[in-house]
Amino acid sequence: MMMKFRLIISSLLILIFTTACNFSLAADVTPPPGYQQPTIDASQTTPVARAIYPPLPPNPEAGAAIYAEKCAPCHGTTGLGNGPRAAELPNPVPALGSPEVSRFAKPADWYTSVTNGNLERFMPPFNSLTERQRWDVVGYALTLNSSSDELAEAAENYQENCASCHGNTGKGDGPQSAMLETAIPDLTSLPDLANNSLQELYSAISEGVSPGMPAFGELLSETERWTLSEYVRNLAFAAAPQGESMQETAATPIPEQAGIEASATVTTTTSTGTGIILGSITNASGGSMPDSLEISLHAFQDMTLVYSNTTQILPDGTYRFENVEMPEGRIFFTTTEFQDMIYRSERGDAIEGTTELDLPIKVYESTTDPASVSVDRLHLFPEFLGEETLRISEFYIISNTGQKTLVASETGQPVLEFDLPEGATNLQFQDDFSTDRFVLTEDGFGD
Predict the structure, then answer these.
(1) Residue 383 or residue 279, greater confidence
(2) How far apart are CA 82 and CA 155, in angstroms?
(3) What radius of gyration do the chain's Cα atoms show?
(4) CA-CA distance, 161 to 65, in Å (whole number)?
(5) Per-residue pLDDT reduced to its tens digit, 310-320
(6) Which of 35, 53, 118, 338 is surrounded by the most beta carbons within 10 Å?
(7) How confident is the model at residue 433 (pLDDT cuts 50, 70, 90)?
């Protein structure tokens, strides 16, 4: 579970990890010039945050067609990150359908990624989809880790072990619920669906929930507990969890991008003319540049990768793409690989009348010396989850103030290592981070 990691000059790594129960990411925004801290009412003791959850139960069946069109080209029809366009991207595509990713995913985080995109990893935002459609496609993506046969077996386990209290549909209205002193939670709660990972459901099933829910860690196998967790989560979906697998629907042919070929210009009906994409390649570490360097151009239109091309660096350290179609609203990036690392330009936006975009790229030499890396800020968030469980979230802002990219001293080894307190358990990672980038170490984990 490793992935090559880099820290570039002036970049910030915002990282939260949790011991005991979960891992999450929060954004840290640098205040603009002239910003003044507002006066806080002393009586305002509780921060207010907008919870993210679907307005209606997500419908994975409706999301299957959206996934086939919008997501499968990169993520693959089964969510393993092996779609036909994945090879065109400089970074691996997250395998949404793998247990390593899906089990630790919070649906609200996936919804945020679908809404806002992640242009650093060449994932565009999908604001053209309605809120309902975005939740539907997230719902479908969450089903990629299970099959109809597995869910059918989990349905039997649910009826045998859970329905007497939780009810046949998870509403908490089973025949024994009225005899209990504490209320049975509604498993179809949409806020809970959005903000609980599969792993959290698995932990509750395995360890039980005080005071009334027993532990099933010794009654059911690990596989049975995982599939039961998926069944329980799917109870909040619009479709019945024991129904046919939605993956068959998503296996419909992926729409081809007409005219998209390697090293070819795309023909579109919205074109307003062609232009030039150019830029310079600068070694920000002060060293020399190689004579041979390949530059790749990527273009997005309406949140879809519509064009890719490559060229070679010129003797003066510049590059140039000519006759590039520039319809209004198209977004461009250029990337290059230097010393086994990928570097990219800022984004360039085509507006009406655009005929030229200058997209310079800075590259950096590599170093294994972490002396220039520092922790600028650290926040600790303790939360008691029970009498015996304390969850600690740690929020780091890490800067590389040097002029070189920090890389691992050995291939396959972590770049940075984080020590965890003795006895910390159940380490999980934020869903926006690929789990492939982390590796467990003797004293904690490495990134």
Answers:
(1) 279
(2) 31
(3) 24
(4) 34
(5) 999 999 999 99
(6) 338
(7) low
Edge-to-edge strands, sheet with 390-400: 12-19, 390-400, 373-384
Cβ(357)–Cβ(275) under 8 Å? yes
User: pTM score > 0.90 for this model?
Assistant: no
Cα 334 vs. chain centroid, distance in angstroms?
22
Q: How far is CA 343 from CA 302, 319, 361, in A?
A: 24, 15, 7
**Cα 350 to the chain's mean position, in Å?**
27
d(CA 150, CA 396) in angstroms, rounded, equals: 39
Q: How far apart are CA 168 and CA 159, in angstroms?
A: 7
Confidence of residue 303 (pLDDT cuts 50, 70, 90): low
Instruction: Encode pLDDT of 116-131 as tens digits.
Output: 888 777 788 887 888 8
